[in-house]
Amino acid sequence: MEMETFPETQKTTRQVLSIVRVMLIIFFGYEGVVRHKFVPKGQRVNKEFYLEVTFARIDKEEGARIMEAKAMDAPS
Questions:
Q1: Which of 9, 19, 36, 54 is deepest in the core (most CB within 10 A)?
Q2: What is the pLDDT of residues 32-54, one digit of tens each?
Q3: Tens digits of per-residue pLDDT, 20-32?
Q4: What percent of the chain has a predicted confidence (pLDDT) above 90?
Q5: Which residues, other chains included, contact 38 with Cβ-Cβ below 8 Å and sequence gap of 6+?
Q6: Are residues 74 and 63 in contact, defined by beta-carbon separation less than 8 angstroms?
Q7: Contact present, 54 and 45 (Cβ < 8 Å)
Q8: What's the CA dihedral at 29, 38, 67, 32 to 10 degrees?
Q9: Does residue 60 have a pLDDT over 60?
C-alpha cells in the first residue's frame, strides 16, 4: 500500500503587535486571591476609588460608616 504524499505548503505567520494596557487590583488573603477588579480605562486609582473597590461587598450602611471613619482619621 502506497502512502499518499502531499506537497509541502509553506506557512507564513504574521506577528501583529497590539498595545493593550490593563490595570488590575488584586486583594490577597490567607487563602490566596480574595477579590480582583479591573480598573476601567481612564480611571485614576485614588483614595476614593480604592475605598469603593475595597468596601464594595460590605453592606452600604456599614461601608458608609467605615468610609466616614476613615475620612475623619485622614489629615486635612
A1: 54
A2: 888 888 999 888 989 988 888 88
A3: 888 898 888 888 8
A4: 4
A5: 22, 23, 24
A6: no
A7: no
A8: 0
A9: no
End-to-end C-alpha distance for the chain, whole angstroms: 88
Measured between alpha carbons, how far is residue 40 from residues 11, 44, 51, 70 in Å? Answer: 39, 9, 15, 24
Backbone φ, ψ for residue 23 (5° rounding): -115, 135
CA angle in degrees (0–180, nearest 5) for 72-46-48:
45
- At 16, list the grid cell: 501583529
Rounded CA gap, 13 and 16, in Å? 10
Classify the C-alpha dihedral 71-73-58-50 as positive or negative: positive
pLDDT band at 70 (very low <50, low <70, confident <90, very high): confident
